[in-house]
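Quick start: read one record
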Amino acid sequence: MVKVRAARAAEAEALTGLVMRSKAHWGYDAGFLASCAPDLRIRPEEVAARRIVVAEDPQGTVLGLASLEGAAPVATLGLLFVEPSAIGQGVGRLLYRDVLRRAVEQGVRRLLIDSDPHAAGFYRAMGAVAAPAGPTVAADGAAYAAADAAAGLDGHLVRFEAAPAPLADWARAWTGGGRAVHVGNVAEFNAQFEDASLDREQGAAHHYACLAAFYSPCPSALVLPRAVPAGWTDLVCRQLGWAGVEVYDGLVERGPGLVDAVRARPALAARLTGAGEPLVPWGLTRPFGLLTGRPWRPGELRYESKAAAHGLFGRILAEGGHPGIVLPSQVRAATRWSAARLLAARARAGKSTVVKSEHGVGGSGTTVVTAGQVRAAGGARAVLRWLPRGPLLVEEFVEGPPDPGAARDLTYDGFVDAAGRVHEVGAALMDVTEGAYRGATVGPGAVPEWAEKPILAFGAAVGRELAASGYRGWFDVDFVADAAGRLAPTETNLRLTGPSIAFMVAARLDALRGAGHLVRIADRVELGARLPEAQLDELCADLARACADLGAVFVPAIPTGAFDPAPWLGVLVAAHSLEALDAAEAVVRSGAAAVGAIFDAPTPAAP
């Protein structure tokens, strides 16, 4: 394994040789290299002052070097060179990330980079963003702009900057700032509610359990029900800078018994619980409590009920202080016939209605019924045949903004720690189609400014009530925006969610690549064809490279859907701007759809 260490003064001459070999790799002529040489030379007395580090292999061979120069709050990446034989092996990435880490430790909040044009793609892929034109600040050494001018290449440097950032405070509080064991017990969490709208085979839940890779910013182990491709975990670890992540998969192919399967393997249970690392589940369950020794209090989850959450929202609003929040009316139908009567009455008045199961995830068990649909079906009783069995909630439909492009579905994420303190994570914009969740975007500017303050205030109020009720763990509050620009809370989820995964990845990338990432999670990106595992790995690697060219990050989030009869992927994309984020998503969707084209190509005619 390649490691980074401080350079030694006695290595100065050898390091200068590495720098010149690396520079020559790009095809510069001897005259240009000679003119650069004085500024690229490393002198023994400079090694410590310029904070030079080297990357070396297990045999002690130096493969590259980097320097962090200047003082907080603005510093310079003065050197970053890799031995030509090691280019493309991840040495530059390792050194760059080390520079950002050290910059954070030293209080640097702006890192300036002047890149050789041949290295511009590398810095873009590492998350650096284009900087305004200005004086040369690093120039692959102290400052060789004079050499550029002498060689007729004045101004050829490409300027970038990065914003070194520590791990977000909330992320440190979530798992203590260290590594954690992630337990993908999605099916187990769902099954405890015995809701008729949920998949009894738990196939969808087992796919979604792949998101266990992202339950915290830095996992030590993943515990998964289904087997996952080894290439998937390798790529995820590479994209997010993780090392040494253990994967325990294929424990439960059907049904909800993941934690029971762990407990039936004493050695595995001891490994997971005995390392002194927190165990993070999708949500709290009785088996998880037995595994971890956490007291099981099923009453903690009472606000998973959409009816109980509605009552909680009403009590908070009755206390005042939330002028931008309105609550849609909701009635629990005692029988399905009473639900039909309520639905029919609203349809006669020309109103749309939301019909919900008591529980349900990702939009399952939630249906929007228009007056026209009731008429077309021949009445409300006929409509009920479409809906899940079991108790139903009949809720007022909140008409959205007239502009179809306006923000409609939003969410708040936070958590209650073991001491009962509420931690705000943030607000996100969700993609919801016909009542079904499709994905979410988090990060700077993702949520309209008018909505953010009321969302955060109301979400914090819900958190305080949950803490008082005894709940400990992650939660969210979902909202819809109405035509008047107000927000209506619709449910709370006492577990991790799709948006929470995006927040985790944003926190990791901010610490790894610089602050300010927007992250989008898309639950379902259709594949043009089913692929063998090796070809799926190749596709994901191609998409990662294509996004890196845009300065974006691609992370396959749910790989197991690729092997379904109608294949798909869950994906994460991240970038420092909305434009780059949209472009990356477009590249991923088109690339995923295009894999079917190879099967449509005409067969060459026989000679």
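Confidence is low (pLDDT under 50) at residues 136-154.
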